[in-house]
Amino acid sequence: MEREPIDCWLTDMDGVLVKENYALPGAQELLEQWRRNDTPFLVLTNNSIYTARDLSARLRASGLVVPESHIWTSAMATADFLRHQVENGTAFVVGEVGLTTAIHEAGFVMTEHRPDFVVVGETHTYSFEAITKAIRLIQAGSRFIVTNPDATGPSPSGVLPATGAIAALITKATGREPYVVGKPNPMMFRSALNKIGAHSSSTAMIGDRMDTDIIAGMEAGMHTVLVLSGISTAEDVARFPFRPDEIITGVHELLDVPLDELGADVAGSA
To answer: Taking the model in full, what pTM does it have?
Structure first.
């Protein structure tokens, strides 16, 4: 379908801008195009481990300049959600610095004594003791929140259990289902839109996963662009009952000037 005028852009990070810590073709040029045109944009990720500063540094090491102010994580979206639920609330958090920092900045106090919320996010070292505390606090009445539903995450030696898997364990033990803030919940996109003062009807979402990026973008009312440089393939699209508005091979196709005319290599990593 023909794309309506887009005023703002949201984009996933892994599989769209970077892959295995290398910038994908056209990513640097697209970011520069948005900055040159004063186009509001945010880079989104379901990863709740790192702060925006950490992720900005990671992207810079890959050759991409993305200021902290242009990064929106599931941890930040979760903190924003909690802030709108309880003013100056309390939380017991299972997660890393990206999540604890965001929740602190939202005005919350961390506690193990009858917290308003139990919040579970990504961590490199899930503790049986912490999970047990989470289960007991939820059974005692604390509300159960999860940053994202991803059941596994990648590592050099294979998949690792991730937030969704730990949440399933806690649900099995408590009988309580969590509220999940991150993708594919369009809540994360709506909070991102609020951050940059954008309207869904004139904003596009770029993602590499049909089951998170595209469905959440669609449900949030945005124009959706699937790139084939990450998880989902062209063949995968047929398995879903919904479609992205556009399917492209990579973000280089969104440039005003083709990469070959810029002297860049579309076949390799930037």
So the answer is: 0.91
Structural domains counted in the chain: 2
Does 129 lie in the same domain as 93? Answer: yes
Name the catalytic one among 14, 54, 208, 245.
Answer: 14
Give the DSSP H/E element, type plus range, for residue 43.
strand 41-45
Handedness of CA 26, 31, 32, 37 (dihedral sign): positive
Residues 117 and 92: beta-carbon distance below 8 Å: yes
Please say if 236 is a catalytic residue: no
Task: Answer for the pair 17, 24: CB distance below 8 angstroms, yes or no.
Answer: yes
Q: Are 92 and 142 in contact (CB under 8 A)?
A: yes
Mean pLDDT by 10 residues, the chain (270 residues): 85 93 95 97 95 97 96 97 94 96 97 97 91 98 96 78 94 98 94 95 96 95 96 92 96 89 56
The structure tokens listed for 107 are 């005005």
* Residue 194 CB neighbours (<10 A): 10
The answer to whether residue 80 is catalytic is no
Q: Helix crossing, 74-85 with 186-196: angle to 10°?
A: 90
Given 180, 205, 240, the domain boundary residue is 180
Angle subtended by helix axes 128-139 and 163-174, to nearest 10:
50
In the chain, the amino acid numbered 69 is S
3-class DSSP state for residue 160?
strand
Which pLDDT score, from 0 to 100, does residue 260 have? 73
Write down the catalytic residue from 7, 12, 54, 256: 12
Whichever domain contains 119, its CATH number is: 3.40.50.1000
CA atoms within 13 A on the CB side of 2: 2
Per-residue model confidence (pLDDT) at position 2: 67
